Amino acid sequence: MTNTTTRGKVLWTVVTILVLIYALFPVISILATSFKAPSDLTSGKFLPTSGKATTSNYEQILVGDAQGLFLSALRNSIGISLIATFIAVVLATLCAYAIARLDFPGKKLVLTTALAVSIFPVISIVTPLFNLWRTIGLYDTWLGLIIPYLSLTLPISIWTLAAFFRQIPWELEQAAQVDGATTWQAFRKAIVPLAAPGVFTTAIIAFFIAWNDFVYGISLTSTEAARPVPAALAFFTGASQFEAPTGAISAAAIIVTIPIVLLVLLFQRQIVSGLTSGAVKG
Amino acid sequence: MTSAIPAKTTTASSSDPGPRLDAGNGKTNGRTRRAPQQYSDRVRAERRLGWMLAGPAFVIMLLVTLYPILQAIYESLFRFRLTAPDEREFIGLGNYGVILSDPVWWSDLGTTVLITVITVAVELVLGFALALVMHKALKSVRGLLRTAILVPYGIITVVSAFAWFYAFDISSGYVNNWFGWLPGIDENLNWFAQGPTALFVIMASEIWKTTPFISLLLLAGLAQVPDELSEAAKVDGATWWEQMRKVIIPNMKAAIMVAVLFRALDAFRIFDNVFIMTNGAYNTEVLSLLAYRQSISRLEIGLGSAVSVLLFLCVLLICFVAIKLFKVDLAGTQGEK
Question: Does the pLDDT of residue B213 top 60, yes or no?
Fold first, then answer.
């Protein structure tokens, strides 16, 4: 009720602006840096000095001399994250279906294992894998990252999907069968459309997590063959060894942030429901 | 939930498995013997299908975590340096002795605990405030607020680390310029050349990036508090603070506990921000970085594995304390239908 008064409106505008600044400021900050010319980087100003704003940082990483480094990292990140997401979502869908729909001993064991895996310190997995991967030739390969990424993407996928699938009214399937559909038809027509949004949301969340990985990325790769973007950013070097790669890193950071922000803008409702239903209540 | 006959019988019989079914069979006469037999076939088929579907995910989870940790435990018992593989030697718990008697371990543990406690405390307050804002916001801005709050969640931690690093960096930063009027801040302040200020930026970046997660969990918790309760409190003349303390917060205790535990475990494993900003210099090293430095930079596989195992034990300890002390019922609030 107080919301509709003028004072309430002013208050809410202020609060909204504060939240927007909080959430977006660091992003805008690195965006501003990415347009600074090398000579302008030390100006101590937030924005590029007027007239000096330049896209040369973007040119350097997209078509210039840092191109090889950045584009291969981008390709690795996209490929590895997509494959890890795909495998995790397929396996998690089967698993979550079984948990929500079937009765078998060990259900709780599967969920507890998923929980335990998700709290596992990544670094504790990396050390032995580092040694093992070197021995069996998986070090610095796509597969060498896809496998450990499953430890990040599988547990959250199982939890999120199990929560989604529990809310599906499975009786619909029976109803469709009573109406003359075959088992498969009933499943496809009645259940798949209800389950699809959950599967899709889970895929987005799993992709976020794989895309965000840093520890595996820097520990299990050494060259452009498999090094993903976050790791590549950390090992970026400037155009010359006397120049800090600040501009190039900022530009690269912006490029890898754009797809994420687009995903967030497009699917914010689904992401929120997916995150919270998986984590708080089934 | 119940999908007609099969599901119903299975829920009944899953609590009393095989042997009792047979005992029952013996007492019943021949005429009714077939029915339970048939059901138990179905039960068996359903169990088999359940494990066929859930099995692959379960096995992979074990392979990607249980196997490496067992390997780490094994390797931690050797003096083993990758550059000198011939000198590999079994030394039992020797590596643990070396680590636990080294002040570096204790100083890194202290830094990690400090970061965990401060970030989780700040995030809980900030996240709760953001959750309240989202919960009470006018319909027209609710979507906008949610989207904005989700942005940090989506940003790569490394990108967030660079954004904060460049803002505070002595050469490329603008923070010194902007906040020069504050005591202690001037253009020559090098935030990353001393522990406390470096930790401040590291924690700020961590807080910015992960508060959205905690606030979404708390928002879900808020949504579960029945409206009638706060209405009733309001009618009874309770102030806003009293409503919070007596009605809202007690009713969302489970959500708060889960959020705090998850964030604490996550913060305890902090790595990316520290690696980017200081790489552990000036007493900002955390345990994950110590493990990384031992095994991947120095190739001391034995020592590195021992640090990894100790870190894992710390995480287990946090979980154990949380579950025992605060009665966080992880499996209960989520696992059962």
Answer: yes
Q: Where are the alpha helices (DSSP H) in B190-300?
A: 195-224, 227-235, 240-242, 249-251, 253-268, 272-277, 287-292
Task: State whether residue A7 sits within 8 Å of chain B by CB.
Answer: no
In degrees and rounded to multiples of 5, residue A107 shows phi and psi of: -55, -50
* CB-based contact, B133 to chain A, within 8 Å: yes
Q: Is the pLDDT of residue A85 over 90?
A: yes
With 0-12 / 13-18 / 19 or more C-beta atoms within 10 angstroms meaning exposed / middle / buried, residue B135 is middle
Q: Which residues, numbered 38 to 97 in chain A, qualify as contacts with chain B under a Cβ-Cβ cut-off of 8 Å?
A: 41-42, 44-46, 91-92, 94-95, 97
Res B38: pLDDT: 61
Q: With a cut of 0.95, is the ipTM above it?
A: no
Nearest to B68 by CA among A223, A147, A113: A147
Write down the pTM of the prediction.
0.86
Q: Which member of A46, A151, A257 has the closest CB to residue B174?
A: A46
CA distance A255 to chain B (A): 10
**A27–B3 C-beta distance less than 8 A:** no
CA of B155, closest CA in chain A: separation in Å? 6
Tell me whether residues B172 and A105 touch, CB distance under 8 A: no
